[in-house]
Amino acid sequence: MSNIETDIELYEFIEKSIFEPFKEQLSESKINKKILKHPVLQSYSLLLLKAMEIFRQEFQDYVSVITIFERIKSHGPESFVMGCSSDVYNEVLIARWEGWYDLFEIENLLNEMKMNCVIRTEKTLKILNKIIQDVQNMHFQKQLVNDVFLSNNNGTCFERLNVIYNEISEEVSKVNKTDIRKIDIKYVPSRFYSAGHLSKEDIEKRIIDIVKGFDKVTDPSKITPTSSFSTDLGLDSLDTVEVVMAIEEEFNIEISDKDADEIRTVGEAIAYISNHPDGLKGLKMSSGLSRRRVGNSNSSGFVETSSFCNQEKNLHSAFQGQKYHTIDKVGCKVVCDPLDIVEDQERSRQPCLTLMEEVLLLGLKDKQGYLPFWNDSISYILRGCIILELAFRGRIQMCHDSLRRRYPLSDCLIEVVNDKVTGEVLLDETLKMMKTSEKMTISSWVNLMSGETWNFMKIGYQLKQVRERLAKGLVDKGILRTEKRNFLLFDMTTHPVSNNMVKDDIRNRLMVMLTASTIILPNSAFFPETIPMKHLRVISLVCAAYAANVLENVFSSSDYEIRERAFNRVDEFFRDFSQWPFTIKYSGNIGCMNSSLANVVAEEIRGGKDKELQLEIVAAVLQSMFSSIFILKNNIYSIYAL
């Protein structure tokens, strides 16, 4: 298996050389009423574990790791008992975290191990401890969606993981009868050393290692105690704040805002740490940095989540009608709108990002932070995605007219059926325009929002600066950051990606939909399992990304055969979903796709008349996108002919 060059070949090898022999021997053992003693049976879990490790370490193919795990369980109880060992579960835990940072699924896996009597070993404890530390660091750096800190009847997800950690610690301690050093010291959740017990050389080395971790530091070899964060290392004021915060975490101390403003060089940071030993632990957190800092660690090293959510842990009913909200044990209060606390159930079932934001994020260059200048089709597609998003959220639908089937989908009128605000500025603005104006067709709305009209009376329908507004929304969500970039004679505002987890999650979702033989969409905090019509939503995202010429970015490092197979599947999507009724509704088959996805999509679109009217809008928008691709190709061919 180690000599296989691609993950597809490895998956085919597993199917033929591990799963098939296992099923044959299992059937023979049932006939003979005994388990045959054969190398494949004896090494079943070890071979699968090796395959999962290769997928994860060599190919970074986390989807295949999860797929193998699900295949093991799908072959019956014998396969589960013999294949799903503790090591296999540990490998799945690592894949879930490295691939999607999915704390909710990790919690489910740990509970599943307990329910099925799979031993949670010391390695499980170390993995969970590493995850908890990463969550603290990522939330500390605002790189993690706050869903894991939202409370429900059972507390927050992060609190529940801490409880599970304590349970596993007790289980491991019972197995290891010794009380001393049950866990390797490097896996202890908190650092218990302090600055006063370290030499100046150790402090200097650790601070330099912290500074080396910043992307803007191009040459780490030039970092010296005299290096200035801004002039020598090229860090801005926000980066300097992050350096100070990282130093606080590294040395387990707290630096006041006044002292933090005076730390401008590596040497000043070293001198500060050397002159402030353990006594700094008792300092009270002041305003400024305290708003960016995670909760204080308790004696066991875990974060006290009371600084993230209310002590009563009831965000839905306890604070309705109040003008302030208690956020910590000290009794600090902030002014708030009760509607911001009372989370609507419908809104909680929606993804963290809209279709427009996902398309824009796929088109942005990660480090440069801007779209290619020659991409002139994305503006039109973004307006179509707005209509798609409103349809998926049940805000608009086709006008219920028995004669509408005589006309093309793009020429049918649409109407607003629910004018409740969505919380997304562009969606609410579009919804308000549709509510207050006469009923128009989908193609008319897309053209008006794009500004492509000769009617000066309707020029106000144009949505201006859509890309910039979407980018600023992503900045507010902590996914992008804002920078100024100089282009010869003028400065331009750019938005580089600051949270690659979200973009990787979108890429993985599209890769699964377009290349995987068994399509199992990965769930994450950004794309929860509770999303309605999630497979149809991903199919719409695929078509929109292709029409906007940003889908190529997902397969930039893929082989030619994989890209061809993916784009062939995109053509199938356009053919089957740009008409109503969908081809899938009656045939149960979608071209090159497997029947399991066809059945899932058929189940998603099953509903009443109102749901069909919403799905007609989806088909109409995809048809409009496909037409725009066709027109663009004809224009290109005409230019080449001239």
Strand content: under 5%
Uncertain residue segments: 145-154, 177-196, 278-332, 585-593
Q: How many β-strands, per DSSP?
A: 6
CATH class of the largest domain: Mainly Alpha
C-alpha geometry: globular
Number of domains: 3
What oligomeric assembly is this protein in? single chain
Radius of gyration: 28 Å
CATH topology of the largest domain: yeast vps74-n-term truncation variant fold
Structural class label? mainly alpha
User: What is the first-to-last residue Cα distance?
Assistant: 53 Å
CATH-derived architecture of the largest domain: Orthogonal Bundle
**Largest sheet at a glance?**
2 strands, antiparallel
CATH superfamily of the largest domain: yeast vps74-n-term truncation variant domain like
What can you tell me about this protein's structure?
The model is unreliable at 145-154, 177-196, 278-332 and 585-593 (pLDDT under 50). Strands 1-2 form a two-stranded antiparallel ribbon. The protein has 642 residues and is mainly alpha-helical. It folds into three domains: 1-84; 195-296, ACP-like (Non-ribosomal Peptide Synthetase Peptidyl Carrier Protein, Chain A, Orthogonal Bundle); 355-641, yeast vps74-n-term truncation variant fold, CATH 1.10.3630. 52% of the residues lie in helices and 3% in strands. The chain is built from 26 helices and six strands. The protein has helices spanning 7-32, 39-42, 44-57, 62-74, 77-83, 86-100, 103-115, 122-140, 157-175, 200-212, 237-251, 257-262, 266-275, 338-341, 345-348, 355-363, 378-392, 425-436, 442-450, 466-476, 500-515, 534-547, 560-577, 584-587, 595-604, 609-641, and strands at residues 324-326, 333-335, 396-398, 414-416, 483-487, 490-494. It is globular, with a radius of gyration of 28 Å.
